[in-house]
Design brief:
The complex is a heterodimer of chains A (274) and B (374).
Chain A: H1 2-27, H2 43-50, H3 52-85, H4 88-103, H5 106-123, H6 132-157, H7 161-168, H8 173-201, H9 205-210, H10 218-225, H11 232-268
Helix pairs in contact in A: 1-11, 2-11, 3-6, 3-8, 4-6, 6-8, 7-8, 8-11
Chain B: E1 4-15, E2 18-29, E3 33-37, H1 44-52, E4 59-64, E5 67-68, E6 79-82, H2 94-104, H3 109-122, H4 138-150, E7 156-160, H5 168-185, E8 188-193, H6 196-202, E9 205-210, E10 213-218, H7 220-225, H8 230-235, E11 240-248, E12 251-254, E13 257-260, E14 270-276, E15 282-284, E16 291-300, E17 305-311, E18 314-320, E19 329-333, E20 339-343, H9 357-369
Parallel strand pairs in B: 3-8, 3-9, 6-7, 7-8
Antiparallel strand pairs in B: 1-2, 1-4, 4-5, 9-10, 11-12, 11-14, 12-13, 14-20, 15-19, 16-17, 16-19, 17-18
Classes of the chains: A mainly alpha (274), B alpha+beta (374).
Chain lengths: 274, 374
């Protein structure tokens, strides 16, 4: 039984990661045919770093993801603090409302946002409103729930007396937040921000509807590539992106694991000296 | 000699239409060790939080040094708190926890260092400066919490059941320790507890509370010897509480017998509650007894025996070092100073009968074990 379990787990992992491995291999393939591995080469990577168009698209994507995740982190943390202060029923109602956009199909969110921007464009008399700002707003919008979802548990885990203790020792409410509460919920903020960043980086569906010709992100541009033969340097780009995300996710998991053992240890050792 | 520092006048606190505090009137003297004592839900923690500035009273005033401070936020009050679960900052070490308040007040690092070092000495935590607070034992965390509050040199220290989480032995040590610290620092302590023994040991003044009202204010001796009503008599120590009639000054009748007592000022033939402390009762041979009854149960308690005696169907608790076997017929004598008379109150008839003796002890143990206010 144990052997079967192990074999099955390995099978699942192969199933999950084989596409990535294929991509990885393809990125080092010197031939143009995906099906035949002709020889090992870094040419695709060299070519990728020579392609300014592609790099500037990646730059666009990074700008949007970084800005959107940062702004969403600030707004989302503030929202989480507000929701945390609410009582029972209202709080769970607000949490449900917050979570709906996450489960909502991206295409619906995308079209809805596009419509909203169209209306706003008419109202504000802006001819072509779609572009950088609409894209940014859209990304902040769909990032928010992830921040709230990650920060809320940290707030509930926190000893509610800590804020009062800080104020008791002379902190104004905002000092109490920055000197005490922020430290306590930081792991949640960071994991929320990383999650939002990755969501933002690879979003295609929503971006497709809310961006104009002036500002295009990588996923949106890549979509148009699918109609013609894919250039191998794209494989190299994706491999790099995959590795970057892998590193981010590993760091996030490590942070969470460390936070967890720290909490467990403090609970276990509650009454004892190390 | 002692000066009034805090005064609460007609303090009312309501949450969702429920009255938690009902016209509390209380003054607290400078350098006094005052204890708010009562069962869970009696309003003692709420009173403390109002004084600390964490709650704004629905009506009534909080005066500090003669000034109304209802609207002064917690961070501007010269009051510091030791929280029930300590509320130490987990991201800071022992030193930084204690220095926290001083850094907020923007003192020079040199002065901070002096004061923190001095405080570490007072709470016997020298050498623990760089330890993480999560690695400390409960008793050590307790000391850090006290040091963190006292280092700010407040005029008043509020303590919310600070010993609740410690085991019995440590609790006794910390009781003495707290009393020592209070005298060394020469400031006012306002202490909240549900443990009557703790209150009697440490306090200058005890305020007994129940159902959001103050039941009695007095010195530990007053509260114990002259309880005002059946609730106080029962909550502080053990009491036999009987129905009686005050015939005249210094003369009370119960169990069909007249007894001399030391109380006066009651109306003629006023129905009263009579309190007799279990340890005040002398067991004598039957022929010398004022009352005679049968022993129904004996429990060895170490220093004494808890002896339950049936007097005409009403069971008394007698604490005595003399062993009287179960089933024996004994007499008791009551001296005038053993009898304490109280006016009838809403609590009359609710306490002081030991007919269900063992069950009651269990109940008390349960109530204390499951204590978790707010």
């Amino acid at each position: 039984m144990k052997k079967f379990n192990r074999a099955f787990t390995i099978l699942v992992f192969i199933f999950l990661y084989i596409p990535m491995i294929v991509l990885l291999v393809a990125s080092f393939n010197s031939g143009n045919d995906v099906a035949v591995f002709k020889g090992f080469t870094f040419d695709q990577y060299k070519e990728l770093f020579r392609d300014d168009d592609l790099l500037s698209l990646l730059g666009n994507s990074l700008i949007i993801s970084v800005l959107a995740s940062l702004i969403a982190t600030i707004l989302g943390t503030m929202a989480a603090l507000g929701i945390h202060k609410m009582k029972g029923k209202l709080r769970s109602a607000v949490m449900t409302v917050t979570n709906i956009p996450m489960t909502n199909p991206d295409i619906v969110t995308g079209v809805a946002l596009a419509l909203l921007f169209a209306f706003a464009g008419v109202a504000l008399r802006i001819h072509s409103i779609l572009g950088f700002w609409t894209l940014l707003i859209a990304h902040i919008t769909f990032n928010l729930p992830y921040i709230i979802l990650n920060v809320m548990p940290k707030l509930s885990q926190m000893d509610p007396d800590l804020t009062e203790a800080a104020m008791d020792l002379g902190c104004t409410p905002s000092q109490a937040f920055f000197k005490v509460v922020l430290h306590e919920i930081m792991p949640g903020i960071i994991s929320g921000m990383l999650m939002a960043f990755t969501m933002s980086l690879d979003d295609f569906v929503i971006s497709y509807f809310v961006t104009g010709s002036g500002f295009v992100t990588l996923p949106v541009e890549i979509y148009s590539y699918t109609k013609k033969p894919m250039q191998p340097k794209i494989y190299a780009l994706f491999t790099l992106m995959f590795i970057a995300i892998l590193i981010i996710m590993s760091v996030m998991n490590l942070l969470q694991a460390r936070d967890k053992t720290k909490r467990q240890r403090s609970r276990l050792l509650g009454g004892r000296v190390k | 000699m002692s000066q009034e520092l805090i005064r609460l006048t007609d303090l009312v606190m309501e949450f969702d239409g429920e009255r938690i505090l009902d016209s509390i009137n209380l003054y607290i003297n400078d350098k006094e060790f005052l204890t708010l004592l009562g069962p869970s839900g009696c309003g003692k923690t709420t009173t403390l939080r109002v004084i600390g500035g964490f709650l704004t009273p629905t009506s009534g005033d909080v005066l500090f040094d003669g000034k109304r401070i209802n609207d002064v936020p917690a961070y501007q009050r010269k009051i510091n708190t030791v929280f029930q679960r300590y509320a130490l900052f987990p991201h800071l070490d022992v030193y930084d926890n204690i220095a926290f308040g001083l850094r907020i007040a923007k003192l020079s690092e040199k002065e901070i260092d002096e004061r923190v070092t001095e405080m570490l000495e007072i709470v016997s935590l020298k050498g623990f400066e760089n330890r993480k607070v999560t690695s400390l034992s409960g008793g050590q965390q307790q000391r850090v919490a006290i040091a963190r509050a006292l280092v700010n040199r407040p005029k008043v220290l509020l303590l919310d059941e600070p010993l609740g989480a410690l085991d019995l032995r440590l609790r006794k040590d910390m009781q003495n320790e707290l009393k020592r610290i209070q005298q060394a620092m020469d400031i006012t302590f306002i202490y909240v507890t549900h443990d009557q023994e703790e209150a009697l040991t440490m306090s200058d003044t005890i305020v007994v509370m129940d159902k959001g009202k103050i039941q009695q204010i007095g010195s530990p001796e007053d509260i114990y010897n002259e309880p005002k009503n059946a609730f106080v008599a029962d909550f502080i120590g053990e009491s036999n509480i009987l129905d009686g009639v005050m015939l005249d000054d210094y003369l009370v009748k119960f169990f069909g017998r007249q007894f001399k007592c030391l109380d006066k000022g009651f109306e003629k033939n006023e129905p009263v509650d009579v309190v007799i402390r279990p340890e005040d009762i002398d067991i004598v041979p039957v022929e010398q007894g004022h009352l005679c009854g049968t022993v129904t149960s004996v429990t060895f308690k170490g220093v004494h025996y808890d002896t339950i005696v049936d007097f005409k169907g009403f069971k008394w608790l007698i604490q005595t070092t003399d062993f009287c076997p179960e089933g024996s017929y004994i007499g008791i004598r009551l001296n005038p100073e053993d009898i304490h008379i109280m006016h009838k109150s809403e609590y009359s008839g609710m306490f002081g009968d030991y007919s269900s003796y063992s069950a009651e002890y269990d109940e008390i143990a349960d109530a204390e074990g499951g204590e978790d206010e707010e």
